[in-house]
Amino acid sequence: MAKLSINPISGSLGAEVTGIDVSDISDTDFELLEQAFHEYLVIAIRGQSLCPASLYALTERLGGVGETPYLTGLSDWPDVVPIIKEANEKSGRSFGAGWHTDFTFQARPPSRTLLYAVDTPPVGGDTLYSNLYKAYETLSPGMKRKLSGLNCVHSAIRSYGPDSTLGDHLENMEIHYDKQQPVEQIHPVVRQHPVTGQNALWINPTYSIRFEAMTEAESKPLLDYLNQLAVNPSLTSRLSWQPGTLAMWDNRCTQHCATSDYKGHRREMLRTTVAGEIPVAAGTTQP
Ligand code: SIN
Protein backbone atom coordinates (compact mmCIF):
# COMPACT_ATOMS: atom_id res chain seq x y z
CA MET A 1 0.00 0.00 0.00
CA ALA A 2 1.10 3.62 -0.60
CA LYS A 3 2.64 5.65 2.20
CA LEU A 4 0.36 7.17 4.84
CA SER A 5 -0.81 10.61 3.75
CA ILE A 6 -2.89 13.09 5.78
CA ASN A 7 -4.56 16.11 4.14
CA PRO A 8 -6.88 18.64 5.83
CA ILE A 9 -10.35 18.98 4.25
CA SER A 10 -11.08 22.46 5.64
CA GLY A 11 -9.40 25.19 7.64
CA SER A 12 -11.45 24.37 10.73
CA LEU A 13 -11.35 20.60 11.26
CA GLY A 14 -11.19 17.27 9.47
CA ALA A 15 -8.52 15.48 7.46
CA GLU A 16 -8.52 12.81 4.79
CA VAL A 17 -6.15 9.90 5.31
CA THR A 18 -4.95 7.57 2.56
CA GLY A 19 -2.28 4.88 2.24
CA ILE A 20 -3.24 2.86 5.29
CA ASP A 21 -5.15 -0.36 5.99
CA VAL A 22 -6.68 -0.06 9.46
CA SER A 23 -7.25 -3.79 9.78
CA ASP A 24 -3.49 -4.37 9.53
CA ILE A 25 -1.90 -1.28 11.00
CA SER A 26 1.63 -0.96 12.37
CA ASP A 27 2.24 0.66 15.77
CA THR A 28 4.00 3.56 14.01
CA ASP A 29 1.05 4.27 11.71
CA PHE A 30 -1.37 3.83 14.61
CA GLU A 31 0.55 6.54 16.48
CA LEU A 32 0.52 8.84 13.41
CA LEU A 33 -3.21 8.30 13.06
CA GLU A 34 -3.72 9.18 16.73
CA GLN A 35 -1.71 12.39 16.29
CA ALA A 36 -3.78 13.32 13.22
CA PHE A 37 -6.97 12.55 15.15
CA HIS A 38 -6.06 14.96 17.96
CA GLU A 39 -4.92 17.62 15.50
CA TYR A 40 -7.89 17.45 13.08
CA LEU A 41 -10.62 16.03 15.41
CA VAL A 42 -12.26 14.14 12.52
CA ILE A 43 -10.34 11.84 10.22
CA ALA A 44 -11.71 10.13 7.13
CA ILE A 45 -9.66 7.10 6.17
CA ARG A 46 -10.33 6.22 2.56
CA GLY A 47 -10.23 2.88 0.77
CA GLN A 48 -10.88 0.50 3.68
CA SER A 49 -12.43 -2.93 3.41
CA LEU A 50 -13.97 -3.64 6.79
CA CYS A 51 -16.39 -6.25 8.12
CA PRO A 52 -18.19 -5.91 11.48
CA ALA A 53 -15.46 -8.01 13.15
CA SER A 54 -12.62 -5.74 11.95
CA LEU A 55 -14.53 -2.57 12.88
CA TYR A 56 -15.15 -4.03 16.33
CA ALA A 57 -11.48 -5.03 16.69
CA LEU A 58 -10.33 -1.50 15.81
CA THR A 59 -12.81 -0.01 18.29
CA GLU A 60 -11.44 -2.28 21.00
CA ARG A 61 -7.87 -1.24 20.16
CA LEU A 62 -8.88 2.41 20.50
CA GLY A 63 -10.15 1.96 24.06
CA GLY A 64 -13.05 -0.53 24.05
CA VAL A 65 -16.62 -0.23 22.80
CA GLY A 66 -19.04 2.19 24.42
CA GLU A 67 -22.59 1.41 25.54
CA THR A 68 -25.19 1.95 22.81
CA PRO A 69 -28.71 2.35 24.19
CA TYR A 70 -31.85 2.83 22.04
CA LEU A 71 -30.30 1.60 18.76
CA THR A 72 -30.21 -2.02 17.62
CA GLY A 73 -26.92 -3.56 16.57
CA LEU A 74 -26.23 -6.49 14.26
CA SER A 75 -27.38 -9.83 15.66
CA ASP A 76 -23.82 -11.23 15.78
CA TRP A 77 -22.21 -7.89 16.72
CA PRO A 78 -24.63 -6.01 19.01
CA ASP A 79 -22.12 -3.15 19.46
CA VAL A 80 -21.95 -2.57 15.70
CA VAL A 81 -25.01 -0.57 14.68
CA PRO A 82 -26.18 -0.46 11.06
CA ILE A 83 -27.42 2.95 9.99
CA ILE A 84 -29.52 2.24 6.93
CA LYS A 85 -31.70 4.34 4.64
CA GLU A 86 -33.23 2.34 1.80
CA ALA A 87 -34.04 3.91 -1.57
CA ASN A 88 -37.76 3.22 -1.16
CA GLU A 89 -38.31 4.78 2.27
CA LYS A 90 -41.21 7.23 2.61
CA SER A 91 -39.25 9.78 4.66
CA GLY A 92 -36.06 11.33 3.33
CA ARG A 93 -34.84 12.23 6.83
CA SER A 94 -31.54 10.64 7.84
CA PHE A 95 -30.51 9.28 11.21
CA GLY A 96 -28.50 11.98 13.00
CA ALA A 97 -29.98 14.80 10.93
CA GLY A 98 -29.58 17.56 13.49
CA TRP A 99 -26.45 18.98 15.06
CA HIS A 100 -25.37 16.88 18.03
CA THR A 101 -22.52 15.21 19.86
CA ASP A 102 -23.07 11.51 20.36
CA PHE A 103 -24.88 10.35 23.49
CA THR A 104 -24.01 13.30 25.75
CA PHE A 105 -26.96 12.12 27.84
CA GLN A 106 -24.73 9.35 29.22
CA ALA A 107 -22.67 9.67 32.41
CA ARG A 108 -19.61 8.71 30.35
CA PRO A 109 -20.41 9.77 26.80
CA PRO A 110 -18.43 8.02 24.06
CA SER A 111 -15.00 9.52 23.44
CA ARG A 112 -15.10 8.74 19.73
CA THR A 113 -17.47 7.45 17.08
CA LEU A 114 -16.38 5.28 14.16
CA LEU A 115 -18.58 5.30 11.06
CA TYR A 116 -17.83 3.08 8.09
CA ALA A 117 -19.51 3.59 4.71
CA VAL A 118 -20.75 0.35 3.13
CA ASP A 119 -23.04 1.86 0.50
CA THR A 120 -23.38 5.55 -0.41
CA PRO A 121 -25.74 7.51 -2.67
CA PRO A 122 -24.35 8.78 -5.99
CA VAL A 123 -24.43 12.28 -4.55
CA GLY A 124 -25.39 13.66 -1.11
CA GLY A 125 -25.47 11.96 2.28
CA ASP A 126 -22.47 13.99 3.48
CA THR A 127 -21.84 14.58 7.17
CA LEU A 128 -21.07 18.04 8.58
CA TYR A 129 -18.76 18.62 11.55
CA SER A 130 -18.01 21.59 13.79
CA ASN A 131 -15.00 22.37 15.96
CA LEU A 132 -16.00 23.10 19.57
CA TYR A 133 -12.49 24.20 20.60
CA LYS A 134 -12.75 27.01 18.06
CA ALA A 135 -16.30 27.76 19.20
CA TYR A 136 -14.96 28.28 22.73
CA GLU A 137 -12.08 30.43 21.46
CA THR A 138 -14.50 32.80 19.68
CA LEU A 139 -16.19 33.73 22.99
CA SER A 140 -15.38 37.01 24.70
CA PRO A 141 -13.47 36.92 28.03
CA GLY A 142 -16.70 37.97 29.77
CA MET A 143 -18.71 35.09 28.25
CA LYS A 144 -15.92 32.63 29.04
CA ARG A 145 -16.10 33.79 32.68
CA LYS A 146 -19.89 33.47 32.70
CA LEU A 147 -19.75 29.92 31.34
CA SER A 148 -16.93 28.73 33.58
CA GLY A 149 -18.41 26.65 36.36
CA LEU A 150 -21.79 26.44 34.58
CA ASN A 151 -23.29 22.99 34.02
CA CYS A 152 -25.88 21.78 31.55
CA VAL A 153 -28.50 19.07 31.90
CA HIS A 154 -28.34 16.52 29.06
CA SER A 155 -31.16 14.14 28.19
CA ALA A 156 -32.22 11.79 25.40
CA ILE A 157 -35.85 12.95 25.74
CA ARG A 158 -36.15 14.69 22.37
CA SER A 159 -34.78 11.77 20.36
CA TYR A 160 -35.59 8.70 22.43
CA GLY A 161 -38.23 9.81 24.97
CA PRO A 162 -41.81 8.47 25.06
CA ASP A 163 -43.08 11.14 22.62
CA SER A 164 -40.28 10.86 20.07
CA THR A 165 -41.24 10.27 16.44
CA LEU A 166 -37.71 9.62 15.20
CA GLY A 167 -38.52 6.04 14.20
CA ASP A 168 -41.26 7.26 11.79
CA HIS A 169 -38.43 8.51 9.59
CA LEU A 170 -36.18 5.49 9.91
CA GLU A 171 -38.11 2.49 8.59
CA ASN A 172 -35.07 0.24 8.47
CA MET A 173 -33.64 0.92 11.90
CA GLU A 174 -35.04 -0.58 15.09
CA ILE A 175 -35.20 2.05 17.82
CA HIS A 176 -36.18 1.34 21.42
CA TYR A 177 -37.65 4.36 23.16
CA ASP A 178 -37.70 5.11 26.86
CA LYS A 179 -41.20 4.48 28.23
CA GLN A 180 -40.63 7.15 30.87
CA GLN A 181 -38.61 10.35 31.15
CA PRO A 182 -35.00 9.39 30.36
CA VAL A 183 -32.40 9.79 33.11
CA GLU A 184 -30.71 13.21 33.02
CA GLN A 185 -26.96 13.82 33.30
CA ILE A 186 -25.21 17.00 34.30
CA HIS A 187 -22.03 17.98 32.45
CA PRO A 188 -19.83 21.09 32.33
CA VAL A 189 -20.62 23.64 29.62
CA VAL A 190 -16.89 24.15 29.05
CA ARG A 191 -15.22 20.75 28.85
CA GLN A 192 -11.52 20.14 29.16
CA HIS A 193 -10.26 17.48 26.78
CA PRO A 194 -8.58 14.64 28.71
CA VAL A 195 -5.80 14.19 26.13
CA THR A 196 -5.13 17.64 24.65
CA GLY A 197 -6.07 19.68 27.74
CA GLN A 198 -7.90 22.17 25.45
CA ASN A 199 -11.28 23.65 26.36
CA ALA A 200 -14.37 23.00 24.23
CA LEU A 201 -17.81 24.64 24.27
CA TRP A 202 -19.56 21.38 25.05
CA ILE A 203 -23.27 21.85 24.45
CA ASN A 204 -25.45 20.67 21.56
CA PRO A 205 -29.03 21.39 20.48
CA THR A 206 -30.17 17.74 20.53
CA TYR A 207 -29.29 16.61 24.05
CA SER A 208 -28.45 19.78 26.07
CA ILE A 209 -31.83 20.64 27.55
CA ARG A 210 -31.22 23.44 30.09
CA PHE A 211 -28.62 24.87 32.42
CA GLU A 212 -28.39 23.27 35.83
CA ALA A 213 -30.80 24.83 38.36
CA MET A 214 -32.55 26.83 35.61
CA THR A 215 -35.74 26.24 33.63
CA GLU A 216 -35.76 25.47 29.90
CA ALA A 217 -37.30 28.89 29.21
CA GLU A 218 -34.60 30.66 31.22
CA SER A 219 -31.84 28.65 29.53
CA LYS A 220 -33.13 28.91 25.96
CA PRO A 221 -31.83 32.35 24.92
CA LEU A 222 -28.22 31.64 25.91
CA LEU A 223 -28.31 27.99 24.80
CA ASP A 224 -29.72 29.04 21.40
CA TYR A 225 -26.99 31.67 21.06
CA LEU A 226 -24.24 29.19 21.93
CA ASN A 227 -25.67 26.44 19.71
CA GLN A 228 -25.81 28.81 16.77
CA LEU A 229 -22.29 30.05 17.37
CA ALA A 230 -20.98 26.46 17.59
CA VAL A 231 -22.03 25.71 14.01
CA ASN A 232 -20.95 28.95 12.38
CA PRO A 233 -19.91 27.86 8.86
CA SER A 234 -16.34 29.06 9.52
CA LEU A 235 -16.03 26.41 12.25
CA THR A 236 -17.28 23.51 10.15
CA SER A 237 -16.25 20.99 7.52
CA ARG A 238 -18.13 18.61 5.24
CA LEU A 239 -17.24 14.98 4.66
CA SER A 240 -18.28 13.34 1.39
CA TRP A 241 -18.42 9.59 1.81
CA GLN A 242 -17.42 6.86 -0.61
CA PRO A 243 -17.92 3.13 0.01
CA GLY A 244 -14.87 2.13 2.06
CA THR A 245 -14.49 5.45 3.92
CA LEU A 246 -14.01 5.03 7.66
CA ALA A 247 -14.49 8.24 9.64
CA MET A 248 -13.58 8.67 13.27
CA TRP A 249 -14.56 11.79 15.22
CA ASP A 250 -13.86 13.10 18.69
CA ASN A 251 -17.07 13.58 20.65
CA ARG A 252 -15.20 15.59 23.30
CA CYS A 253 -14.63 18.56 21.01
CA THR A 254 -16.95 18.29 17.97
CA GLN A 255 -20.57 18.25 16.88
CA HIS A 256 -21.83 16.61 13.71
CA CYS A 257 -24.97 16.55 11.57
CA ALA A 258 -26.03 14.08 8.87
CA THR A 259 -27.61 15.53 5.71
CA SER A 260 -30.96 14.33 4.31
CA ASP A 261 -30.47 15.12 0.63
CA TYR A 262 -30.44 11.72 -1.11
CA LYS A 263 -34.09 10.57 -1.05
CA GLY A 264 -34.58 7.68 -3.49
CA HIS A 265 -31.05 6.36 -2.96
CA ARG A 266 -29.55 3.84 -0.57
CA ARG A 267 -27.04 4.62 2.18
CA GLU A 268 -25.66 2.00 4.57
CA MET A 269 -23.13 2.68 7.33
CA LEU A 270 -21.76 0.68 10.27
CA ARG A 271 -21.25 2.56 13.51
CA THR A 272 -19.42 1.87 16.74
CA THR A 273 -18.44 4.09 19.65
CA VAL A 274 -15.40 4.04 21.90
CA ALA A 275 -16.10 4.17 25.64
CA GLY A 276 -15.48 7.60 27.16
CA GLU A 277 -14.69 9.37 30.42
CA ILE A 278 -16.74 11.43 32.85
CA PRO A 279 -16.51 14.95 31.33
CA VAL A 280 -14.54 17.40 33.46
CA ALA A 281 -14.74 21.18 33.52
CA ALA A 282 -12.09 23.55 32.21
CA GLY A 283 -9.35 24.16 34.73
CA THR A 284 -9.62 20.72 36.34
CA THR A 285 -6.34 18.95 37.09
CA GLN A 286 -6.61 15.59 35.38
CA PRO A 287 -4.65 12.47 36.36
C1 SIN B 1 -24.55 9.83 13.43
O1 SIN B 1 -25.03 10.91 13.77
O2 SIN B 1 -24.06 9.06 14.27
C2 SIN B 1 -24.60 9.40 11.97
C3 SIN B 1 -24.08 10.42 11.03
C4 SIN B 1 -24.24 10.00 9.59
O3 SIN B 1 -24.81 8.93 9.30
O4 SIN B 1 -23.75 10.72 8.72
Question: How would you describe this structure to a colleague?
Answer:
With 287 residues, the chain is α+β, with helices and mostly antiparallel strands. Helices cover 20% and strands 25% of the residues. It is built from six helices and 16 strands. The protein is globular. The N and C termini lie far apart (39 Å). The site of succinic acid (SIN) has 11 residues, from strand 5, strand 14 and strand 15.
User: How would you sum up the global shape?
Assistant: globular
Question: Total number of β-strand segments?
Answer: 16
Mean pLDDT equals 96
Strand/helix succession: EEHEHEEEHHEHEEEEHEEEEE
**Amino-to-carboxy terminus distance:** 39 Å
- Output the CATH homologous superfamily: Clavaminate synthase-like
Radius of gyration over all CA atoms, rounded: 18 Å
Q: Spans of 5+ residues with little confidence (pLDDT < 50)?
A: none
Number of helices: 6
What is the total domain count?
Answer: 1
Strand adjacency order, main sheet: 1-2-3-13-5-15-4
CATH structural class: Alpha Beta
What small-molecule ligands were found?
succinic acid
From the 3D structure, determine the CATH topology.
Double-stranded beta-helix
What portion of residues belong to β-strands?
25-35%
Give the class from helix and strand content and strand pairing: alpha+beta
Gross CATH architecture: 4-Layer Sandwich
Largest sheet: 7 strands, mixed
Task: Give descriptors for this structure.
287 residues; alpha+beta; Double-stranded beta-helix; 7-stranded mixed sheet; 3-stranded antiparallel sheet; 6 helices; 16 strands; globular; binds succinic acid
